[in-house]
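Run Tyrosine-type recombinase/integrase through structure prediction, thanks.
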Amino acid sequence: MSTELQALGASFARALKADGKAERTRVLYLQSVTYFARFLQSRGLEPTLANLTKDNLREWLGELNETKRPATVRTRFRGMRRFTGWLVDEEELGTNPMQGIAQPSIPSEPVPVITDDELAALLKVCRGKELPELRDTAIIRLLLDCGLRASELCGLRVQDVDLDAEAIIVKGKGDRVRAAYLSARTTAALDKYLRKRAGHRWAHLEQVFLTQRGALSPDGLRERIRARGDAAGIAHLHPHRFRHTFAHDYLLNGGQERDLKRLAGWTSDTMLERYGASAADERAKAAAQRMRRGDRV
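Sure, done. The structure for Tyrosine-type recombinase/integrase is below.
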């Protein structure tokens, strides 16, 4: 990346941090700047503000549409839109070149949920009495019970856990705080892990979940979930799939959408609609099966 965009990208990242954006959000936004700069270089253009034009942005997004998944294209779009908006705010640009460029749409497809058989397989590969096995068992059960984001689980502190109340306090996006509730088995798994954790070399840290190098990070969590998934025969397993499963199960079992928004830490209906699509499909299927008149005559 040229000195100009590299310097502006670094300043942009610092501004995002000052605004309280999560580390992963900052990384994703900055990647948009980096990939656009590489695109310009591949076209023989210098990655400068002068080449940050609407035409170049449209061409870049068009190339992404041909080579990347829709969700990836939207992520790149949002990162660049945030960057160009910041440039205007900082008076580095007079107008926003992203203005007038439509946000890419994502096909509405129900997200696959974790089945009971898959959950049983996951818990089976986590059996053991050592800290990694006890930790991963507690994590899997906690993700399934509470639908936590990766950053929320890794940010969970020992003082946020109330085993007697079978509840935890979660610090979500925008520093919004909410309560989440545990099943008896998840509480027992967390209790067993915490007792083992007390003898760990990093037990003085406030974060609940530890590794040999310190507190578990979101990237470390994704690696652990993927590894456990591979061992259980579940390809490409990631923490967010537990969040989808949590929402699916909650709605499928009669939970109210308003309550789910609060439990999941959502402030708009957009994610509720996406996460609830699979449960809606299941309910529609069950209703259709009940209404099969052809089976009654």
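The CA atoms of residues 115 and 271 lie 21 Å apart.
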